[in-house]
Design goal:
Elements (H helix, E strand, L loop, with lengths): L12 H21 L4 H20 L2 H23 L9 H32 L5 H32 L5
Helix pairs in contact: 1-5, 2-3, 2-5, 4-5
Length: 165
């Protein structure tokens, strides 16, 4: 019924494809906004090593200043890195079980690796074993953090299409 004010239920294929492409673009923008930038991993690694060095100094003033700088640095970095991510909400289904396992595995590897190196060096009477152990952890953060973000992004982009994992 032409001109009767009723909506046409038939959508042209090109209109549907255009609408779906727009939805996919917006989903990708949300996924991209949720990620931690590469510089964050460098800053976090430096802060962890700095804190360990401050504690190992044994000097109360250095420990106090080092701890304050560590806390302030982590809080400022998190606030800066996550400011965009706080504006978006990514569904848990996009991350999937693979994404959750990757995050948990990365955290365990980084913390466990740092502790393992530090305790091993300490057992071998190597000076500054905690700082060196945290340096190992910082290397894992710098090398693994961006890889983790790229992998999680790929998983989330796949999962938005209905691919599970």
């Amino acid at each position: 019924m032409e001109g009767s004010g009723e909506m046409n239920d038939n959508v042209r294929a090109d209109e549907a494809a255009q609408a779906l492409a727009g939805i996919r673009d917006r989903q990708e923008q949300v996924i991209n906004a949720a990620f931690v930038p590469t510089w964050f991993w460098w800053v976090l690694g430096a802060l962890v090593v700095g804190l360990a060095a401050a504690v190992e100094s044994g000097n109360r003033l250095v420990i106090g200043v080092g701890t304050a700088l560590f806390v302030a640095g982590v809080l400022a970095s998190l606030a800066w890195a996550l400011r965009r991510a706080m504006r978006v909400q990514v569904r848990n289904q996009l991350l999937g079980w693979r994404g959750g396992l990757l995050i948990a595995g990365f955290a365990l590897l980084t913390v466990g690796g740092s502790l393992g190196v530090a305790f091993g060096l300490n057992a071998a009477d190597v000076p500054h074993s905690a700082t060196l152990g945290n340096l190992f952890g910082a290397i894992l953060l710098v090398a693994g953090g961006p890889w983790l973000m790229r992998t999680l992004r790929r998983i989330m982009l796949d999962n938005r299409s209905g691919v599970t994992g």
